[in-house]
Amino acid sequence: MTDDPDPAQRQQLTVSEHDLDTLAEDLARWLDSKVSADRPPRISELSRPQSGGMSSTSILFDAEWSVGGRRESGSFVARMAPEAGSFPVFETYDLATQYRVMAGVAATTDVPVPELCWLENDEKPLGALFFVMRRVEGRIPTDNPPYVFIGWLFEASPAERLRLTHNTVEVIAKIHDIPDPATRFPMLTGPGQSLHRHVAAQKAWYRWALADDGFEIPLIERAFAWLAEHWPAEPGPDVLSWGDARPGNIIYQQFDPLAVLDWEMAALGPRELDLGWVIFIHRFFQDLATRFEQPGLPDFLRRDDVVAKYQEITGYMVRDLDFYLVYAALRHAIVMARVKRRMIHFGEDTDTPDRDDYVMHRTSLEALLDGTYEWD
After folding, report:
1. Which of 102, 200, 261, 268 is least buried, going by the fewest C-beta atoms within 10 A?
2. Considering 4, 212, 213, 244, which one is annotated as catalytic?
3. pTM beyond 0.90, yes or no
4. Superfamily of segment(s) 20-134
5. How are strands ordered across the β-sheet holding 116-120?
C-alpha cells in the first residue's frame, strides 16, 4: 500500500493537447458565425477544468458581443469530442446524441439540465465536434480527489448527505418517469431486448478497449460469464437510463440539484441500470477509503436508502439488484482498465504482470462474483 498514490491528492491526468490561446481565437471566429455580431466576439476567462473527465474535453469560457448595437454576453461550456491522439476511453463519442437526449429531457421533465446553445457537427472550427451550453455555477462532489476523503460533502452532516441522497434519487426517478422513451429517443432503440443490447455493447467496448490489443482481463471475462449465468428472468420495462447516474455528475446549490450533466452513456433499459450504478460507484470510492484505512462516508448513498427512496417515489419494486450491481462493477472495471492503459500510454503509470490488477476495485468485484461482498 505504501507504493500507492495518496488518494486525497488530485492526480495529474492528460486530457487535451489544445493550446488555449489558439482555441480562444478559433472560438471567437466560430461564435461570430453563429450570432452575426457587429464585430468579432470577445472570448475571455477560457480554461480547461482539471476536475473534468477523460472521455471528452470541457472548455469553460466567457463571451461578449453585440448585435445591432445591443450587448450580449454569457458564461459557457464547450463539450468537445476526444482528440485523435488522446487515447480515448470510449470507441465512439456521439455528441449529437448527447445533445438530443439533453434536449429531450429538458422538454419533457423538470430535471435541471444546462441550457443548450449550439451543436457543431463540423470538426473544422475547433478540430473536433462539440456543443456549447450555458455554464451553471454551483458545487460538485469531486472524483479527483474523491469526495470520500475531502471537500464539502465530506464535511457535511449525515442529515445533509441523506438529503443529497434523496435529491439524487429523485432526479433518477424523474428521468425514468419520461413516458414512451423509445418514441421520444429513437436514436437509442435497436433490435431485441434492451438489456441484451446493453451488455453486448459493453462486450464490444471491452474487446476494442483491451482484449483485441492483447490485454485480456481474466476478471472481466469471468464477470461477463457470471452475468450470462444470472440473467434476470424478466427485466423490467424500458426507461430512459441516464447512464452515468451519480452525484459527481450533478451541480448542486447547497444540497439541491441545479444541473444534471454527462449524458454520454444514456440508453434505454431497465430502471436498475441506473440504481446499480449510483450505488456501486459510491461503494467504489468508499472501498477505496477503507483500503487506505480512512473512514470515508459509510452513511452516504447506502444501498437500502437508495432502494427505499426510489420505491417510495415511483411505487416500483426494485428487482434483481444484485445482477445490476455486478454489472455496474463490471462496466466500471472496463473503464478502470482502459484508464490504466491510457495512463501507461502517457507515462503516468507503469504496467503490471497481473492483468486483473488493471481493475482498481479488483477485490470488490471478486467478492461480488463470489457472493461474499458485505453491504451495510
Report:
1. 200
2. 244
3. yes
4. Phosphorylase Kinase; domain 1 (3.30.200.20)
5. 42-47, 57-67, 70-80, 130-134, 116-120
